[in-house]
Specification:
Oligomer: single chain
Number of strands: 0
Largest sheet: none
Helix content: over 70%
């Protein structure tokens, strides 16, 4: 047990330092590490965990670390893997928040991001290919995945697309709904019922109220980091007035270019509002529900596989999750491939990842260095 905990600690601390690019990239790195390299999980079970994390609130990739930790070493592994994936990003974000408060601006990191973004896209491509081979089991699952991909590209809320894809996909796999399942996906509302947090605030910000705000977000947050932006803007800026719009945008930028979970934006916000205690309270608040959700959900996943209907639902959710990853990939590509440097870095990173099986951490580091060098020559 102790050896497994040490392995988990070493792996997820390293991923917490090097995992740039958001949840899809993080999951790609984990698939490379725990399925391809170490064989800790089979690809099918890894897919089941990905699908399961998409069904509960909280940051999907962070919850994946907890699931993997639980599989390897029970609740202790869950605590070790989840905490050590979060802590490096939270610590770095806290340092940047201190610099921001001291100097009033963010450090310039664009030259590094020039190379990191295309390298991350290559990692996601490799992971999507591997997971897609396992998830697309027949023409029915292919229809579900394609339908969710199209729905996501047309702006349908990720969680709504995933849940409806899972339900209708299960019906399709059980030969009840037929091909009508695909037709219903694009009819979903674009905003998917997103709502903003409304919390009774106080004029003086106490640690209790700060912790309660982020605890509530952690307990109900579905979807991507863009949903987090809506929650923070509605709660912190419009409702409570704890942050200005400019401070919120800076906080979001910090979450985007630091490694690890995007939700460490909460660390930055907490520090601005209440210093080091605020950073700690906000970070614990937003991540604590995920630890509890995974602790309850993980033992239920094998039982879902034993049920014919729930197994079909899980298969549909799995391929729907892959469809969402493809949508993320397409959107990232549109934003990233604006010059020849990005295309070249992505191709080199793809060759390193898919052909030569280079560790994803080295690919990210190499992309950052190459991006910086290419930015010097224009």
């Amino acid at each position: 047990m102790k050896e497994r905990l040490r392995e988990l600690a070493a792996l997820f601390f390293r991923l917490g330092v090097t995992a740039f690019g958001g949840p899809a990239a993080h999951i790609g790195m984990m698939e490379d590490e725990v399925v391809t390299r170490r064989g800790w999980l089979g690809r099918q079970h890894f897919l089941d965990l990905v699908g399961a994390t998409s069904l509960i609130p909280g940051p999907n990739s962070t919850e994946m670390t907890m699931h993997i930790g639980y599989e390897r070493a029970g609740w202790r592994g869950l605590a070790v893997a989840g905490s050590l994936f979060i802590l490096p990003a939270a610590f770095l974000t806290g340092i940047l928040a201190w610099l921001y408060v001291q100097y009033g601006s963010l450090p310039t990191v664009e030259p590094l991001l020039v190379g990191i973004k295309p390298a991350v896209i290559a990692i996601i491509v490799t992971a999507v290919y591997r997971l897609g081979l396992k998830a697309v089991k027949n023409w029915q699952t292919a229809i579900v995945g394609l339908g969710v991909l199209i729905a996501a590209l047309f702006g349908v809320d990720e969680v709504i697309a995933l849940l409806v894809g899972g339900v209708l996909g299960a019906l399709l796999l059980r030969a009840i709904a037929g091909s009508a399942a695909l037709l219903l996906l694009p009819l979903l509302p674009g905003n998917g019922g997103r709502f903003l947090m409304q919390i009774e605030g106080e004029t003086a910000v106490s640690l209790w109220s700060l912790g309660a705000f982020f605890l509530k977000i952690g307990a109900i947050l579905y979807g991507s980091g863009y949903v987090l932006v809506a929650y923070l803007e509605g709660g912190l800026v419009d409702q409570l007035g704890w942050l200005t719009q400019a401070q919120l945008l800076d906080a979001i930028a910090i979450g985007q270019f630091t490694p690890g979970p995007v939700l460490t934006t909460a660390t930055f916000v907490g520090f601005i509002i209440a210093g080091v205690p605020g950073a700690i309270v906000a970070t614990v608040g937003i991540f604590l529900p995920s630890f509890l959700f995974v602790l309850v959900l993980n033992p239920l996943i094998p039982k879902m596989r034993q049920s014919v209907w729930l197994s079909a639902f899980l298969d549909a959710v799995n391929v729907a999750a892959v469809g969402l990853m493809v949508a993320v990939l397409i959107n990232l590509g549109r934003q990233t491939f604006t010059n020849w440097q990005g295309v070249m870095i992505a191709l080199l990173a793809l060759a390193a990842s898919a052909r030569f099986k280079v560790n994803s951490a080295w690919i990210v580091l190499g992309g950052a260095v190459l991006g910086y060098l290419l930015s010097l020559i224009g």
